[in-house]
Amino acid sequence: MTEQLFPLKYLPLPLGQVRPRGWLKEQLEIQSRGLSGSIEEVWEDLGPDNMWLGGSRDGWERGPYYVDGLLPLAYLLDDENLKNNVSKWLEAFLNYQDEEGWIGPVEGDPHRDYPRDPWPIFVVFKVFVQYYEATKEERVLEVMLNFCRYLNQHLDAHPLRSWAMFRWADMALCVQWLFDVTEEGWLLELSKKLQKQGFNWQNHFTHFIYQRPQPVDKLKMETHVVNNAMGLKTGGIWFRQSKQDSDREAVCRALTNLDKYHGQATGIFTGDEHFGGKDPSRGTELCAVVEYMFSLEMLMTIFADVALADRLEQIAYNALPATFSPDMWTHQYDQQANQVICSIADRGWTNGSEANIFGLEPNFGCCTANMHQGWPKLAAHAWMGTPDGGLAKIVYAPSKVTTQINGKTVSIIESTEYPFRETVTLEIQTEEKVRFPLHLRIPTWAKNASVTLPDGTEQTVESGQFFVIERTWDQGDEVKLQFPMEITIRRGFNGSVSIHRGPLVYSLKMGEEWVLIDGTDPYGDYEIHPTTPWNYGLEIDLDDPQSSIQVMLKPVGPMPFSPEGAPIQLKVKGKIVPQWGLVNSCAGPIPASPTSSTEPTEEVILIPYGCTNLRVTEFPLVR
Fold first, then answer.
1. Is residue 592 within a helix (H) or strand (E), and if so which, with residue range?
2. Which residues pair with 416 in a beta bridge?
3. Rounded to whole angstroms, how far apart are CA atoms 449 and 396?
4. Comparing C-alpha atoms, which of 429, 511, 523 is closest to residue 475?
């Protein structure tokens, strides 16, 4: 009997069945008007001379990385210009296969002697999966199978090493998908070879030994922030074949250990470029942010765990937008939770001196190529199918899903300004009555959440679970969700506090001056200098934070993830802490809480982390 994979608990929908609306669509349109839609014109590495397109520049990961984000952006927006651009790259990928099955240039990592490095082709496979789901182009399966045969024949003599050894799960994920589509049993044997030769992430996360910032002279591939963000999903992917609880549990241990030793208020962990500990002045690479999101999206399909989707939203609505300029023309290589100046300076990191400026290619070009996948893949995975023939709401954001259920076309329109507001309305559109279950994620933080059914019945629902409504749906039926967003305080580095409300983290609103230091506006390199004080401690009643903080709502405009467009402000009392100053061009170590200050009490304005460019997110408490 042919080996079978553990069935997915939630099913990714083919690309194009979910469409963004409202602020989410506007965010994708900002992305398309920014660097994502113009990068080939302004960055030579992805221009006509790219080796994947027949030129002589970068035949490694940058082209595949770029298309992995460009493709879902094009299909979610149904943008013909972007689709034409995707088509050019897809034809290059599909036609770049030799007689043996190898795809693409024979050029490996420029820093390692590994000419037939399969790692970039792992990313090409992620592109192929999305493209096939969107178009059903049969050539995709043929090319994928041919490369898998090549890999299966050559891995024994030329085993995985370098990046491919640490990122093997990205290929195993695609091989498992290909098995589900083709039912070619030998593909699971190939997956086993990848697992056997790949780095043991389950052991790494279960017996986690990297509990401190990594010294520059002892860096390893297993301490690399992006490798770890990718490796997070390995336990889940391999669980589909092993069906061992130890693999499932490794995912939980990964989240727990990364949070415990390197975690930040936004749900990410430090790595600038390697583990940096819990100090909020240490950085996290942009590639790690988008890869962490993708890992969570894939793990949701396997485990359907509310906590995973909570984490996905936390990262997507805080860390993701904060690492771009609001117009998405520039980005940082590394972001900081306490980021009070962006400048070229030696910060003692494992990255270069320009890693925290905003620019076209700060520090290294991998993020310039890979950053494009964050928003589109989040939107594409906002809804998923369910094995019982229904739909599941994974991520809350304005959207519309259209799919076939029991032979009938069904759409659900999601109207909301979440995460900036507490209410979500789902409207059913169907020409005929149809029965199916609707799985609604109730965030863990949403205490006393309520659901109002189409007949007007309102009921309180338990947080941290999926609330399932199974009924016969009719045209115009509505479900309304209310997620009360209470203010919570979390303790962090040196006893500091961060302020949370729903999925959003709040940071000090700072005055800023952008200084073009190289290149051409709007995609040049910029330092950002503060024009207002930053070294505040907060006066908060930890037992009753609601009494210490005033919430001010503003309209959700066309660019909500910007300092000027922030749809929410929090007002809190605080004092300047004079002894807290800059160290190595960063906010120095946070004074232990509670700390003292003889400065006058002021009203301090906080805005969502994702709306900031400069910020303080972890504050000392003042007496």
1. none
2. 424
3. 14
4. 429
pTM: 0.98
Query: H helices then E strands: how many in the chain?
Result: 18, 25
Residue 483: closest CA among 609, 392, 393, 375: 393
Q: Which residue has the tokens 């999305």?
A: 130
User: In 509-567, where do the E strands start and end?
Assistant: 512-518, 525-530, 536-539, 549-553
Our CA angle for 275, 373, 43, nearest 5°, is 90
The single residue listed with the structure tokens 């500990």 is 277
Domains in the chain and their CATH numbers? 384-482 (2.60.40)
For residue 108, the model assigns a pLDDT of 56
Nearest to 192 by CA among 167, 231, 161, 155: 155
Question: Would you state the pLDDT for residue 623?
Answer: 85
In whole numbers, what is the pLDDT of the chain averaged over residues? 96
Mark 80-106 as b/e (b = at least 16 C-beta within 10 Å).
eebbebbeebbebbbebbeeebbbbbe
Q: Give the model's confidence band at 1: pLDDT under 50 very low, under 70 low, under 90 confident, else very high.
A: low
Identify the three-state secondary structure at position 306: helix
**Beta-bridge partners for 385:** 11, 391
Q: Which residue has the tokens 């700390």?
A: 595
Q: Using the predicted structure, report yes or no on whether residue 109 has a pLDDT greater than 80.
A: no
Q: What is the pLDDT of residues 369-391, one digit of tens each?
A: 999 999 999 999 999 999 999 99
Sheet with 450-452: strands ordered across: 18-20, 399-405, 408-416, 423-430, 478-482, 450-452, 458-460
The answer on pLDDT for 110 being more than 90 is no
Residue 269 class from Cβ within 10 Å (0-12 exposed, 13-18 middle, 19+ buried)? buried
How far is C-alpha 63 from the chain's CA centre?
A: 20
**Does residue 270 carry a pLDDT above 70?**
yes
Taking Cα atoms as reference points, which of 333, 323, 337, 343 lies closest to residue 363?
333
